[in-house]
Amino acid sequence: MPTPASAFTRRRILGQTAAGLALPWLGAAAGAQADAPLTRHIPSSGEALPVVGLGSWITFNVGGDEAARAACVEVVRAFFAAGGRMIDSSPMYGSSQPTIGFALARLGRPAALFSAEKVWIGDAARGPAQMEASRAYWGVARFDLMQVHNLLSWQQHLPRLFEMKAAGQLRYVGITTSEGRRHADIEQVMRTQPIDFVQFSYNLLDREAEQRLLPLAQERGIGVIVNRPFREGALLKQLSRHRLPGWAAEIDCAYWAQVALKFVVSHPAVTCAIPATSQVAHLRQNMAAARGRMPDAALRSRMARDVAAL
Amino acid sequence: MSTSWTDWLSYRPSDFLMFAPRLYWRLFESLNLAFWPLQVGIVLAGVAWLGWAWRDGVRPGRTAARAGLAALALGWAFTAWAFLWQRLAPIHWLAGDIAPLFLLQAAALLALALHGAVQGHRDRLRCAAGLALLLWALLLHPLLAGLAGRPWVQAELTGLASDPTAIATLGLLLQLRGPRWPMRALWIVPLAWCLLSAATLWTMGSAQGWVLCAALLLAGWAGRRG
């Protein structure tokens, strides 16, 4: 049955299943149950990952504050309940690692977990000890993904990470930066090293990655993890002063957070965004961005243009 | 392709703020609940000491000065252990490195108290500035939590929390004269802490950073009077 012309009056709007049919990069969710989150394939393996993950910068650094730690457990519980998989952390994030480990233990170590960690130490000889300490904090047998944090001593760390991957001690290797720093260096690593993932900042206002890094990731078959999709909350604080535009409803967004996340994860090169939160309500809003209709390229341009003009 | 100084210049103060402000303020709540009613004793002892030290004018006598130095030494040591090591270090990777400096400051203050070669400073204006800082640290700084709309249980007290302890120390040092270089060395840690804490508070969006800034300016101005 031919599609009625009227259906294309909102052709910029892509339903989740339609996205799976029309856009291969959104295809992992096709055929899945209707309430499952949208997934993307990891280019190097084909493994499907939900497009919204969970970051832990600041929000999970709660030290010995029992009430805050209990709140983090509830956030992680809601994350898995909403179909989430990737949790990302770093030795740089204070007590975030033990907090994640505490939450995972309390939740019976959910099998869906995709653990993403980082090695962050200038003296590469101490890298293995740091990674082992991180593993002990998380309480996992091995990490799914180990990334070199902020390119620190990457020349020394990466060979070891590739060896660990070959030995089955890791599943994926990556490298990270944030807030637009050292994109030229990241680009060189992407061109010369067989990494599985690259992580950098990308959001409605910080779009430099669209010029080179995102196309290069597609070209080289590298998965992309997007950090700071909300500019650490500053973007949402800025946007909260304005009403949602009319097009937000067309992509099933009830909150600015969902607008910001749908903009990020609808880029064809993006594998997963990792917003951080300490509140279950916000977590649920974020996870809802992995569901429903997604913006097409034309609407993505309009979203960026409209938000920049606010 | 190593990290260069230009890379570090691309960082902003907020990049180093690795905890949420509400978590920071709750550290003081935890501290106060753990050591209640020590706070009452600290305030009463502080007021009693002020009355004793200034019964003869705006500068403390020698014995009162030594007692004040010893009390602050205890405060720095306690703050290093109870605040920096036990509470701040889990959420701030610099705190564990700073705690030994607090202990060093405590040891230096104690050494000067035991050595005894201190007496009240002759400059009345300098002593008055010192008294103002001491009064602020002991009696007014604890009120900031409530005035800022935070729970009163999050009050910061001299001897328990680092900011009022540093301000009180600057106040006492303004009041005293003694061996030149040891006295000068005692300024380093409180001044550095006030700077670091002011930057942290500003980054957190707290106007309380201005309090430390004002304390630094007053101490710097009065300290230059000799």
How would you characterize this protein structure?
The complex is a heterodimer of chains A (310) and B (226). Chain A has twelve helices and eleven strands. With 310 residues, chain A is α/β, with parallel strands linked by helices. Chain A has a single domain (43-309), classed as NADP-dependent oxidoreductase domain (TIM Barrel), CATH 3.20.20. In chain A, the strands form three sheets. Chain A has a seven-stranded parallel sheet with strand order 4-5-6-7-8-9-10. In chain A, a hairpin with a 6-residue loop joins strand 2 and strand 3 (48-50). In chain A, helix 2 (66-81) runs parallel beside helix 11 (280-288). Chain A is globular. The termini of chain A are far apart. In chain A, 51% of the residues are buried. Mean pLDDT of chain A is 89; it is low at 1-33. With 226 residues, chain B is mainly α. Chain B has one domain (37-223). Helix content of chain B is 70%, strand content 2%. Chain B has a two-stranded antiparallel sheet with strand order 1-2. In chain B, helix 9 (180-203) runs antiparallel to helix 10. The A-B interface holds A 57-59, 61-65, 68, 92-95, 150-155, 179, 181-182, 185, 188, 232, 278 and B 1-3, 7, 10, 14-15, 17-20, 23, 26-27, 30, 86-87, 90-93.
Averaged pLDDT of chain A = 89
Task: Give the class-level CATH name of chain A.
Answer: Alpha Beta
Helix content of chain A: 25-40%
Largest interface: A-B, 26 and 21 residues
Spatial order of strands in the largest sheet of chain B: 1-2
CATH architecture of chain A: Alpha-Beta Barrel
- Described by the principal axes of the CA atoms, the overall outline of chain B is globular
- DSSP, total strands of chain A: 11
Overall number of domains of chain B:
1
Strand content of chain A: 5-15%
The CATH H-level superfamily of chain A is NADP-dependent oxidoreductase domain
Please, what is the average pLDDT of chain B? 91
What's the structural domain tally of chain A?
A: 1
Structural class of chain A: alpha/beta
The CATH topology of chain A corresponds to TIM Barrel
Uncertain regions of chain B: pLDDT < 50 for 5+ in a row? none
